[in-house]
Specification:
heterodimer; A: about 750 residues; alpha+beta; Aldehyde Oxidoreductase, domain 4; 20 helices; about 25% helix; about 25% strand; B: about 160 residues; Ubiquitin-like (UB roll); DNA polymerase, domain 1; 2 domains; 5 helices; 5 strands; about 35% helix
């Protein structure tokens, strides 16, 4: 569905087959674990069985004596970091914390925390040797709940952490705290806003830690060569940030490290931070051989970067005709072992869908004895969307207002100021609500329950994500057969080779199939930020368009040389060059002649000067609740999302559908179960229950197109915002079905059943 | 290693013979000994389906099969689905229907779908969802995978009808 007058494109908006497709349906694509190098050793890690303990001693002698063992490392073998913060592309990182997360120094802060590693002739010997490493621990009491960790008498995880105030009052800097950050945003006057409200609703919410759940575990193979050069083959969302993190952790210049990004089996934010390469690198240095280090699924759950659990209080004031007058939120996020949860982004997102005159948000980044959390698809936004969108539904219920009309009346528009300050440019929040209202789903009656024990209900919710710009590089070379080789630095997780190639093809006026994209290593292309923040099709796309523009200019000059006319008399248009006296040469023909008029033609493009205008989505869901078991079945699901301009509609739909199903998993089943000692009790895919195809219906998609003026073709990133609304939309549907308000994620059968029994 | 055994089986139509330890899984042998890395390891305990292969025509998760159990068996992997360099209907449908994003689960889904279409050439949406429920995909939300299998089934029926 197009909501704006749409220019006619030749390539953009079509659905070519992805360039890397054949390799991926035949099993040929090379992922990190598929790599095999001559003389390669295999490594295994020793991980902490405790959630919180002091390391008293590590005895590696028995392991080192095992035949086939080639090297053993522990934190003492790693370079010391001291007190320094390094800018790693997405904000400054405390290197001491990053290093301690890679290999524990004096303390372990979560179960699964790496303590030592062994390299051996094969993985079985390495695993046997890892079991022979004796670690003596002094077990400390863990703190696992975000509110408990905020108490003054809570066990302290990191002696070097003091509360950093961001807008909030300064706190005591003499005492270490688990509260790493205290954020405060304010707009207008809350007292005035709540005084103007007819209805004020205040609710509390809890969400549990959940994992990105990519199917490919983390991996790295590293060769520390005799010349001092370190090469890393790995699965990563960003080869350049992986290079920088690895170099900083090894205290090497970035030019001494080369990262070769292998195909990546999913990331969703979880494959940005570095875990394995520095350890494999030191093992390689000790042995002079390449070392491969893979995580198990349990390692991935226990010791990578899930998204935080949270505790949220939210208060909303509304007039009886449905205008939001004031809103107040208190948001505490589990950072995990070290500071750095996305609570700041959560605070910026919580009220972003609505134009609220008086608002206040307070946020806390809190260390607990769980893995150090990381980005997960619109990091922080889903937790707070669950809170605000269900409170809005409750306000609509109390005031007997239509939830879609309510959202339209209060929706953020161009010029609306967010609680944290910025004003929106042209955005499509209103259009997504209108698209849902007009959808077949919304217009159809609610399905009848399948039995008297079942109840059906419909819910809706909206969501916001910023989308980022950041930096990308693209190099495009014209081939003699009239095609273009495109080299980019963005690792391709969901078809971006094609969405980038299509933008270059559109700009040059050639076919998408005539562009051959390659993702290069860190020495084959200019600096490129991570595949994250819904940025690749936007920002690497801009770089590709600029590379194509350089090609156009150079090709016009070459045609001028060919025709022996002045440069200013030729022009690149419609897939070829035109000149004086009706002269015309098509791109392909000119490409064949380039060797006669100056040789190779290469176009470069970089981006980094543009930011995106923000993405919005509105979802509608029908559920059926089994009142005897508390099980919720998704009957029908429709998502409307502003994609700006959909470059490859199939992959836009794919992002929307994938995000929704992750959101359904978060809503209904997924959670980290911890016991009192801080051991995750469900660290397998059997017990950490992600949706299967039998759990979900087809996901209906409505692509709304409100072009982003910051991109030459109007692209908005689409990857992240689809995960934000599902938990709230489903909670609202459950309420309509069975009359209970769920305020704790996930809304699993036992939790829903308990709530229904209580009601 | 003294405890290695000689095992032989039919792999993708050809007889192979190799040495393996009793503790090695079929997946490990396929990937590390026989260098067929199309079958992927996502969980190593049978929950994700990324390592699905056909063992005597039956889909199995190769991470839960010991290689020594496969003596004299017929093993088919993702590497044998394309015939003489041409993609089959399921592979083509995955490409045309954009039924993959990161691609790590794709080999397992394709092998499982081959087994489904062998057993049931005309599956309903519910049949497909039930049969593929042991394969996890975290990227697509399954919509386009299910549609690709529907489309492949239709193409294969048309091809069969055309003789």
């Amino acid at each position: 569905m197009a909501t704006a007058d749409k220019p006619k494109y030749n390539v953009i908006g079509t659905r070519p087959i992805r360039h890397d497709g054949v390799d991926k349906v035949t099993g040929r694509a090379m992922y990190g674990a598929d790599l095999r190098l001559t003389g390669m050793l295999h490594a295994a890690m020793v991980r902490s069985p405790h959630a919180h303990a002091r390391i008293k001693n590590i005895d590696t002698s028995k392991a080192a004596a095992l035949p086939g063992v080639r090297a053993v490392v522990a934190a003492a073998d790693m370079p010391q970091q001291g007190d320094r913060h390094v800018e790693l592309g997405e904000g400054a990182v405390n290197m001491r914390h990053l290093a301690a997360n890679v290999l524990a120094q004096d303390k372990v802060l979560y179960r699964g925390h790496p303590v030592a590693a062994v390299a051996a002739d094969n993985i079985h010997i390495a695993e046997e040797a890892a079991r022979l490493i004796e670690v003596e621990y002094e077990v400390l009491p863990p703190v696992l709940d975000v509110r408990a960790a905020m108490q003054a008498d809570a066990p302290i995880l990191n002696d070097d952490v003091r509360t950093v105030a961001a807008g909030a009052p300064e706190s005591d800097q003499d005492k270490p705290s688990n509260i790493a950050k205290h954020i405060l945003f304010e707009k207008g006057s809350l007292d005035e806003g709540f005084a103007a409200a007819d209805v004020v609703i205040e609710r509390e919410f809890d969400t549990t830690m959940v994992h990105q759940g990519y199917i490919e575990p983390h991996n790295a193979t590293v060769l520390w060569n005799a010349d001092g050069k370190v090469t890393v083959w790995m699965s990563t969302q960003g080869s350049f940030t992986a290079r920088q993190q690895t170099a900083e952790l090894l205290r090497l210049p970035v030019s001494s490290v080369k990262v070769v990004p292998m195909e990546i089996g999913g990331g969703f934010g979880g494959k940005i931070s570095v875990y394995l390469p520095p350890v494999a690198a030191v093992l390689s240095r000790k042995t002079g051989r390449p070392v491969k280090l893979l995580m198990s699924r349990t390692d991935v759950f226990e010791a990578t970067g899930p998204t935080p659990g949270s505790h949220i209080r939210l208060k909303l004031g509304v007039t009886k005709d449905g205008k939001i007058t004031a809103a107040d939120a208190w948001v505490a996020f589990e950072a995990g072992a070290y500071p750095g949860s996305p609570v700041g982004m959560a605070c910026m997102c919580v009220f972003a869908c609505y134009d609220i005159p008086h608002a206040r948000v307070e946020g806390f980044d809190v260390c607990v004895n769980k893995p150090r959390t990381n980005a997960y698809r619109a990091p922080g936004s889903t937790q707070v969307a669950f809170a605000i969108e269900t409170v809005i539904d409750e306000a609509c219920e109390q005031l007997k207002l239509d939830p879609a009309e309510f959202r339209l009346q209060n929706a953020s528009k161009e010029g609306t100021q967010r609680v944290d300050g910025p004003n929106f440019g042209r955005i499509g929040m209103v259009e997504t609500v209108e698209a849902i209202k007009a959808s077949d789903h919304y217009q159809s009656p609610l399905p009848q329950p399948s039995s008297p024990e079942h109840k059906t209900g419909r819910g809706m919710a909206s969501g916001f994500w910023f989308n980022v710009g950041l930096k990308s590089s693209v190099t495009a070379t014209v081939n003699g057969d009239g095609t273009v080789s495109l080299v980019e630095g963005s690792t391709d997780i969901g078809g971006t080779r094609t969405s980038i190639a299509m933008q270059l093809a559109e700009t040059l006026g050639i076919a998408a199939e005539d562009v051959h994209p390659t993702v290069a290593d860190t020495e084959g292309i200019g600096y490129t930020d991570v595949t994250g923040g819904s940025r690749v099709t936007f920002s690497t796309g801009i770089a590709a368009v600029r590379a194509a523009e350089e090609l156009r200019n150079k090709l016009a000059a070459r045609a001028a040389a060919l025709w022996d006319v002045p440069d200013d008399q030729t022009k690149y248009e419609d897939g070829g060059v035109t000149g004086p006296d009706g002269k015309r040469i098509a791109f392909k023909e000119l490409a064949e002649k380039l060797h006669m008029v100056g040789g190779p033609v290469i176009g470069n493009g970089t981006s980094g000067d543009q930011t995106q205008g923000g993405a919005f989505g509105t979802h509608c869901v029908d559920v059926e609740v089994d009142t005897e078991t508390g099980k919720v079945q998704i009957l029908r699901y429709t998502i409307a999302q502003d994609a700006g301009t959909a470059i490859h509609p199939s992959y836009v739909e794919g992002q929307m559908q994938g995000g929704v199903v992750q959101g359904i998993g978060w809503a209904l089943n997924e959670e980290y179960f911890y016991d009192g000692e801080g051991a995750m009790r469900n660290a397998t895919f059997l017990d950490y229950r992600m949706p299967t195809c039998y759990d979900v219906p087809m996901i209906e998609t409505i692509i709304v197109e409100v072009p982003d003026p910051n991109h030459p073709y109007g692209v908005r990133g689409v990857g992240e915002v689809p995960i934000c609304p599902p938990p709230a939309a489903i909670a609202n549907a459950i309420h309509q079905a069975v009359g209970v308000r769920m305020r704790h994620l996930p809304m699993s059968p036992p939790r829903l059943l308990a709530k229904m029994v209580k009601a | 290693m003294s405890d290695k055994q000689v095992i032989s089986f039919e792999l993708n139509g050809e007889c192979v013979e190799f040495l393996c330890e009793p503790r090695q899984t079929l997946l490990e042998v396929l990937r590390d000994t026989l260098h067929l890395t199309g079958s992927k390891e996502g969980c190593s305990n049978g929950n994700c389906g990324a390592c699905t292969v056909l063992l005597d025509g039956r889909p199995v998760v190769s991470c839960l099969v010991l290689a020594v159990e496969c003596e004299d068996a017929r093993v088919r992997t993702i590497e044998s689905v394309a015939c003489d360099g041409a993609l089959d209907e399921v592979q083509s449908a995955f490409l045309e229907g954009a039924a993959l994003q990161c691609g790590i689960c794709t080999p397992g889904f394709i092998v499982q779908a081959e087994a489904l279409l062998d057993a049931n050439p005309n599956p309903s949406e519910d049949d497909i969802r039930f049969y593929l429920a042991g394969n996890l995909c975290r990227c697509t939300g399954y919509d386009k995978i299910v549609r690709a299998v529907q489309s492949a089934a239709e193409k294969r029926r048309e091809a069969t009808a055309a003789g």
